[in-house]
Design goal:
The complex is a heterodimer of chains A (358) and B (327).
Chain A: H1 5-8, E1 11-12, H2 32-57, H3 71-78, E2 86-88, H4 94-99, H5 104-111, E3 125-126, H6 135-150, E4 156-161, H7 168-179, E5 184-190, E6 193-194, E7 197-198, H8 199-202, E8 219-223, H9 227-242, E9 248-253, H10 272-282, H11 284-295, H12 300-323, H13 331-334, H14 342-357
Parallel strand pairs in A: 1-8, 2-3, 2-4, 4-5, 5-9, 8-9
Antiparallel strand pairs in A: 6-7
Helix pairs in contact in A: 2-3, 2-11, 2-12, 3-9, 5-12, 6-7
Chain B: E1 3-5, H1 6-20, E2 24-28, H2 44-48, E3 53-55, H3 60-72, E4 76-80, H4 87-98, H5 101-104, E5 114-119, H6 134-138, E6 144-146, H7 151-163, E7 168-173, E8 180-182, E9 196-199, E10 204-208, H8 211-225, E11 230-234, E12 237-239, H9 243-253, E13 256-263, H10 268-278, E14 290-294, H11 303-308, H12 313-325
Parallel strand pairs in B: 2-3, 2-4, 4-5, 5-7, 6-7, 10-11, 10-13, 13-14
Antiparallel strand pairs in B: 1-8, 6-12, 9-11
The chains are: A alpha/beta (358), B alpha/beta (327).
Cofactor (chain B): thiamine diphosphate
Domain Transketolase-like pyrimidine-binding (chain B): 4-179
Protein name (chain B): Alpha-ketoacid dehydrogenase subunit beta
Chain lengths: 358, 327
């Protein structure tokens, strides 16, 4: 019997790189409608990401964090949630947040340095992107804990990268969540690199999923470029959590083609040849397209229409974002405290008095 | 009026609020049947049950981070850090998360949580369990910082802290837990940011925090015998600071001494001295401002050395005399 860790945590796949369905686990649920919905969201995310990089290059927004290559992991998991659930993104997860219903204008505003960009639409429980590493894992544990106490059926899903699993917050979060059996889903996107540090220098563990063993919670490894595998495995974890069966850890294997952020150059720390090869062989978009073609779901005209529509919505969002005048300096002071605190008020008055004297 | 201890006042403030408000709960280490390291939560798990008195793993970052998450959903967590020194392990969640989220959320989210924690030396708990690190958190925009010195203040300020929309760091002093004072049975609130003149006087203003309030009052009694009339002001909250009360007092006395247990260098006393130096009270000063604070050393375990490391009553008496005699 093979007892290696990799055999205990096999990479779950539904669609292989060639677009073939490799198991029938969810065959009846995989419909043309679902495939189209995935394609629409994924192509939108990809165009969104390219738009983001371009806007940064043109100086129209600040530093941007690209996610191209990770669309299946983000969209598949985001669509497994229901309205009212909590989502805790990192700085690389605007594919997930936009799919979950965040305002496009606000996401772009965030990257232009507007506090208002963190504000999700009413009723959407989307946390501001976590920029420190792993801190959001504890918040998700806390919201899940509170929702359990309140007796509602909300779940909390938190994103984090491979590097985050080295932080104490990851381990404290999983331990807390398991001890108190809270409705949380710990969704890891393992893209192989934490800025410049490759996974084999990040940990000796063969998988991230195996870390669930230490907390006696389910841990699964999925092909993060297979949107069906991501969606159905996340849904399983979401259902477990909603039914009071506690937290789960999901490791989605994926890859970012580009830089860590628009401020770095990945060729300094990574052989970009591997990125090109992965794009050729494992790209999540190409795979879905091949699958749809093989199933007879593909329609070239429809696909063109979808892309055109996505581009139009993105252009509109950018236009709206650029209509916003420069930030009012008053907001620097307004949100520091929730109630009037006079030193802040005095500082604000002094700040504007100084300005008017200049 | 009924007399209870500072410790009982803290517990009563929490219990009374928890009976009224189901969103309030406590989390921390050994706060269940054990009753907390200093006994503050004793008996509470029996009344409120394990869901509301949440005994947690030894996991300060998770206690703080979990409280942040729960507070964002509208709960009002009170977290107990067993010793205030352990704030070092929860610091990221407090400084980078709790203090920032309202701002970073564009005012949309709030983090109404209270972090209660025992600080200070005097119990023989040595270098890693005896510090007074309140200046660290007072430096961070988005946090309120409270340091009650009496049972009455502890109860009223804790009620205000629980009601506050912002994260509040609530420092209790280990040596004050057993001190007694008159405390009303009913709930009441003391506004955060309002200093209290603990003793009126005309010759010199002593601004003292936490346990140093009591030492300053003791010194004032001694000094009265020599005809020196000391005014003792307890700011009660460091953020926001009631600057007005301190400025008015210094205008009246023309002399200022600041006393805290925390290490003098970089301590909050420097902030209070600066406030006066920048204010209209500066013109009224008849002598240089004096700061008394802990020595810049780790708190020793040895009882004699431990005492010597922080200001004591004779140090305050000497400082007052020097200030009053300054020509």
């Amino acid at each position: 019997m093979n007892t290696s860790i990799e055999s205990q945590f096999p990479t779950y796949q539904i669609i292989d790189g060639e677009g073939n369905m490799v198991n029938d686990d969810y065959k009846s649920e995989i419909t043309e409608e679902l495939a189209r919905k995935f394609y629409e969201k994924m192509i939108f995310a990809r165009l969104f990401d390219r738009k983001g990089v371009n806007l940064q290059r043109q100086g129209r927004i600040g530093t941007y964090v690209p996610f191209e290559g990770q669309e299946a992991a983000q969209i598949g998991s985001a669509l497994a949630l229901e309205d009212g659930d909590w989502m805790f993104p990192t700085y690389r997860d605007h594919g997930a947040t936009s799919a979950f219903g965040h305002s496009l204008k606000n996401i772009f505003l965030y990257w232009r340095g507007f506090i208002e960009g963190c504000v999700p639409p009413e009723g959407k429980n989307i946390f501001p992107p976590a920029v420190p590493i792993a801190s959001q894992i504890l918040h998700a544990t806390g919201t899940a804990w509170a929702d359990k106490k309140k007796g509602n059926d909300r779940v909390s899903l938190v994103y984090f990268g491979d590097g985050a699993t080295s932080e104490g917050d990851f381990h404290e979060g999983l331990n807390f969540a398991s001890v108190f059996n809270v409705p949380a889903i710990f969704f890891n996107q393992n893209n192989g690199f934490a800025i410049s540090l490759p996974i084999n220098k990040q940990m000796k563990s063969k998988t991230i999923a195996q870390k669930a063993l230490a907390y006696d919670i389910p841990g699964v490894r999925v092909d993060g470029n297979d949107i069906f595998a991501v969606y159905f495995e996340t849904k399983k974890a979401v259902d477990r959590a909603r039914n009071g069966e506690g937290p789960s850890l999901i490791e989605a294997l994926t890859w970012r083609y580009g830089a860590h952020t628009t401020t770095d150059d990945p060729t300094k720390y990574r052989d970009q040849h591997e990125s090109h090869e992965r794009r050729e062989k494992y790209d999540p978009m190409t795979r879905l397209e091949k699958f749809m073609q093989k199933q007879g779901y593909w329609d070239e005209e429809w696909a063109e229409e979808v892309q055109k529509d996505a581009s139009r919505r993105l252009d509109e969002a950018v236009e709206e974002m650029e209509k916003v005048e420069k930030s009012d300096e008053a907001v620097m002071f307004d949100y520091v405290f929730g109630t009037d605190v006079w030193p802040v008020e005095e500082q604000k008055q002094a700040f504007f008095a100084d300005r008017s004297e200049r | 009026m009924r007399e209870i201890t500072y410790l009982e006042a803290v517990r009563e403030a929490m219990s009374q609020e928890m009976r009224k408000n189901d969103d309030v709960f406590i989390l921390g280490e050994d706060i269940g049947v054990y009753g907390g390291a200093f006994g503050v939560t004793r008996g509470m798990i029996e009344e409120f049950g394990p869901e509301r008195i949440r005994n947690t793993p030894i996991s300060e970052a998770a206690i703080a981070g979990g409280a942040v998450g729960a507070a964002l959903t509208g709960m009002r967590p009170i977290l107990e850090l067993q010793f205030s020194d352990f704030i070092t392990i929860a610091m990221d969640q407090i400084v980078n998360q709790a203090a920032k989220l309202r701002y970073m959320y564009g005012g949309k989210g709030s983090v109404p949580m209270v972090l209660r924690t025992p600080a200070g030396s005097g119990t023989g708990a040595a270098a890693q369990h005896s510090q007074s690190l309140e200046a660290w958190v007072a430096h961070i925009p988005g946090l309120k910082v409270v340091q009650p010195s009496t049972a009455y203040d502890a109860k009223g300020l804790l009620k205000a802290a629980i009601d506050d929309e912002n994260p509040v760091i609530f420092y209790e002093h280990k040596l004050l837990y057993k001190t007694k004072g008159d405390v009303p049975e009913e709930q009441y609130s003391i506004p955060i940011g309002k200093a209290d003149i603990k003793r009126e006087g005309k010759d010199v203003t002593v601004v003292a925090t936490s346990i140093m309030v009591h030492k300053a009052l003791e010194a004032a009694e001694e000094l009265e015998k020599e005809g020196i009339d000391v005014e003792v002001i307890d700011p009660r909250t460091l953020v926001p600071l009631d600057e007005e009360t301190i400025v008015n007092s210094v205008k009246k006395t023309g002399r200022l001494i600041v006393v805290h247990e925390a290490v003098k260098r970089g301590g909050f006393g420097g902030e209070i001295a600066s406030v006066i130096a920048e204010s209209e009270a500066f013109d009224y000063l008849d002598s240089p401002i004096k700061r008394l604070g802990g020595l810049p050393i780790p708190i020793p375990y040895n009882p004699n050395l431990e005492k010597a490391a922080v200001p004591q009553v004779p140090d305050i008496i000497d400082a007052v005399k020097e200030t009053v005699r300054f020509k």
